[in-house]
């Protein structure tokens, strides 16, 4: 306790506030994840002392995890992979005019979860270190499978389509070099796929890019798809505090699951909020409200995200094993300052370690003040017209994808996945199951293959996966989740007389599903040419996918509605909209040709110019070009002059 007063030194407070503020901004920009934020700021800590540098990185870590909830709530675009679950109820609240309310709940529950995680870090780190060592490949595999089974419950709509989306996400995660064998697979001859699809590019493609296209699609109807009237549904701050603390179950579930996932190395910190959301929904009396603006969903997701922060530092500081991707980057920050994690950390570097830990507790209270202070200004973002917000999202999508690996191929990934998701959402597919499948696929496969090897060495792979208290408990949770989803699906099933009609085999829906099933079957046959380690898990997923597609074919052969959408929904409302979408999509692919800033300028001009020419909204040419120039200059100053991001600045011609 003797070091606690060092936290309140003026210099430390300034660094902490700066770190949190930068973290919130980083988290709020789609593509700039907490991991990237900490990595970008490590060079700036070289000239700082060890404690000062760690406080700055810790503030960025805490702030960016919360910051990811801002675009998730306001625009349905998760600012970080961990914020996917926040979109489920946060964005519906914003659409109901409760954007400020949702952000207040996010801040308060984030602080509650953060304090819980830091409390465990300070007082129970040795105990939880021993606990985390009990989790081997089998336990990691079952956690990933448990997360995958959650797909059936987390999204509204068809359970079958959710599971198909999850299976597709898992299959996408197999692309590139296998983490177990070190062999590249499913690259289709493209060098850019050898390293696999980057999670940031995939998430931007699933959420941000299609959201921008939907905004453009809404322009003729003069609908503000992403706008939320902040003047409606206002609530006092005291009401928001009461809403959080009147729901202790949601906070407890979120904080507990977030801490558990953070403590376990390799479990994947990004899934904490999704698992917490599912459990909050499972234990809720009225499950139908989830996905429609339920406060409990936001509270559980955000408390889990921030509880994971402190908990992920437990194995890092005590064992040198990161509990999350950001904690892995944090390890580099420790080593740069000559601090080696382990049991001697709190002896050899006691002052630095304890000042850092206490500053992380103080960071939660500063985050509460800073977050609540910024809400008034953040909600104003929803008043930006759709014809300006669409190109802004596209611009940040491009730079967010590129800066992860300085690869133009990631931009192509965003555009291709984004266009496909835009089309599939018209057939009531949700991006969340695809994202969850992609995040968990590699974790599940790695645990499965390592478990097979360990089990084989011990005499029985089957016994290894189904022995031990944690394996049995997690397996039971998997079975329970599947059973509950099946029962709920059966209860919610409409009592419609289903008659098979062979004539339906020629319907568009049936033919599409048959084509998809045939492609999956051919892929299954192709996998036989690969070695066992490379093919076994993809074969399992493809077999499940074929079964799910078969179920959809059966639905398509029935006289009742086969999940098709009406022709009015299928068609874009105006030919001009289709032209604008094609233009912005083509421009988004030309980063190397045009240079990033010319690309941004064209995007910022093209969408509002279409609105001006079609007279969908009253806007002047002068305003269009002025805003395009100002926005482009701001991006140039921030990313090229200040952050020195190596973007393709100038056209290649």
Write the layout of secondary structure elements.
Layout: H1 10-28, H2 34-41, H3 50-67, H4 69-75, H5 86-95, H6 99-123, H7 125-132, H8 137-149, H9 151-154, H10 159-173, E1 176-177, E2 184-185, H11 199-218, H12 237-245, H13 248-263, H14 272-282, H15 295-319, H16 325-336, H17 345-348, H18 350-378, H19 386-405, H20 408-424, H21 431-458, H22 461-465, H23 469-492, H24 508-526, H25 532-556, H26 567-570, H27 575-588, H28 591-594, H29 596-614, H30 621-642
Antiparallel strand pairs: 1-2
Can you put this structure into words, describing what you see?
With 653 residues, this protein is an all-alpha fold. The protein has 30 helices and two strands. It has helices spanning 10-28, 34-41, 50-67, 69-75, 86-95, 99-123, 125-132, 137-149, 151-154, 159-173, 199-218, 237-245, 248-263, 272-282, 295-319, 325-336, 345-348, 350-378, 386-405, 408-424, 431-458, 461-465, 469-492, 508-526, 532-556, 567-570, 575-588, 591-594, 596-614, 621-642, and strands spanning 176-177, 184-185. A two-stranded antiparallel sheet has the order 1-2. Helix 5 (86-95) packs antiparallel against helix 6 (99-123). The longest helix is centred in the middle third of the chain and has 29 residues, at 350-378. The radius of gyration is 25 Å and the shape is globular. Mean pLDDT is 82; it is low at 223-233 and 561-572.
